[in-house]
Amino acid sequence: MARDLTTEYRHIPVMLDACRKALELSPGDVYLDCTLGGAGHALVLAGDISPDGTLIGVDQDRMALNTASKRITDAYPVLNFIPCEGNFSELDRLMVDAEVPGADGILFDLGVSSPQLDFPERGFSYREDAPLDMRMDPGNNTLTAAEVIATYDEPDLARILSRYGEERWASRIAQFIVQRRDRQPIETTFQLVDVVKAAIPAGARRSGGHPAKRTFQALRIEVNDEMGVLEKGLEAAIRWLNPSGRIAVLSYHSLEDRIVKEMFAHEAKDCICPPEVPVCTCGHTSVLKVITRKPLIPTKEEIAANPRAKSAKLRVAERKAREGA
After folding, report:
1. Is 19 within 8 Å of 314 (Cβ atoms)?
2. Residues facing 58 on adjacent strands
3. Is 254 within 8 Å of 218 (Cβ atoms)?
4. Mean pLDDT, rounded, for 55-76
5. Which CATH superfamily does the domain covering 16-115+226-319 fall into?
6. What residue segments make up the domains of the chain, in order of their start?
């Protein structure tokens, strides 16, 4: 029997008030939630576009989508709600299928602490023993964390641990992984945790939380190509944004925030030629106006009430009313 997340979802939406103010939605607007999850943000923002608005909710996890759909339709029975199962990197296809010409407000909440990820069989948690999977979309993604551990060479393992996990001991952990897998396959979460603990000196393990946290984060990002997916999703979202519509992105990782910042800046420029080129030849035209020159961050009060918000950064941009405006 399919598992239902209705009772498990106790997800507190991060920076909810800031997102509402940023998107400036009105009754009748089209709101696109690219990371619907348990509908934490969507349940509130749907009230801003009701009763005649349209809510498009995207999520690649069917359990999450089913849970969110029930919550939204129960709360807003007359709202035009369109659930879309898929990854936001597929946004062009999803919007075409939804037969909606554009959106007035778009939200990305890039956090991954949704309760379905804590199901042991998914292999995301270093606190539960399970097969090393970590795929967010098992139906379409064949690469697992176990395969990464088994097949990547030592330099590549060190690279992803350092880049995606910002792991100080990346090279040493990669070395220990290769040495261990030569003797015995590393196929479960606890087997990997044991390797990481062995690689990190005892003194360094006494602070900074669970020693395997950064390794697991890095593997999850690699398995799901999260940075590449984010770039594709943002590019598509900007295309589908209506004139004067706004896009807001909540990120929790420095690499995610950098991608958002650079893409918003790129689309806000009329010329992207190298500085040494005397005359513009790129033909690029700005389509965005950056609303947040510096990212918005949660208040101390919100962090105290919701520790998940601690690393959140919110960036907002607006589609220009007309090209070149």
Report:
1. yes
2. 84
3. no
4. 92
5. Vaccinia Virus protein VP39 (3.40.50.150)
6. 16-115+226-319, 142-223
